[in-house]
Give the backbone structure.
Amino acid sequence: MPRSLYLALLVLSLIWGGSYYFIKILLHDFGPWTIACLRSAMGLAVITAVMLAMRKPFAFRRIPWVPMAVMALVNTAIPWAIIGFSETRITSSMAAVLNATTPLWTLAVGAVFFRAVTHRLQWLGVGVALIGLTILLGIGSSTVISIDPLGFAGMVGASFFYGLGAQLSKRLLQGLSMYQITFGTLLCSMLGSGAIAFMAEPVALSHLASPAAFAALAGLGLFGSGVAYILFYFIVQRGVRNLPQW
C-alpha cells in the first residue's frame, strides 16, 4: 500500500480522535443535531475554499444528489448526532475508543449486505483490534456494570452507520472526485441535520461568542469535518485500488 495512504490514515486518526473532546465541550451549549449542523457548515466552508483555490470543478449537475443525500445522512449526519447523544452519557475517551469498532462493522456490513469478499487477514486484524479495545476500556465484570448502556449502544450504533456509509460511498458515488464527494456530503449533512435541529432542539447561536465554544467548533468543523473528510474519501478512493475488496 502506498505510503501516502498510511500517512493519510495516521493524520485522520489524530484528527478524529481529538474530535470527541471538542464535541464534549460543545454539548454544554448545543444539542447533538445542532453540533452536527454547525460542524458540517464549517467543514463545507473549508472544502469550498479549497476547491475554489485549487480550481476544482463543482460540477453540480454531475452529482447524483439523491444517493449523495442518502450517503450523507448515513455516513455523516446520523452518526454525528448519535455520537453527540452518547457523549452526554459516557466520557469522550470511551467514545473515541468505542468508535474503533468501525472496521468490524465495515467488514460485517460488506459481507452480509453487499456480498463482499473478505479475507482471513482482515478478520484477524479486526480480532486483534478488538482485543486491544477490550484492554483499553478495561472491560471486566465491574466495568461492564458501570458503563451507561444507552451511551455504549449509541457509540456502537454510530460505528455501524460509519461502516455502512463506507460501503455505500464506494458504490453510490463512483466517478466523482474526493473534493466533490466531500462537498456534497457536507452540504447534504448540513441541510439534513439543520432541519432536524431547527425542529427538535433550542438553537442559541449566541453561545458561539464564547471563546471556548468557538475554538471547539473551529477544531471540530475546520479539521474534524473539512480536512478529515478530504482525507477520508482520499483513503476510500485510493485504498480500494490497493487493498483486497471488502
Remarks:
- The CA atoms of residues 17 and 242 lie 25 Å apart.
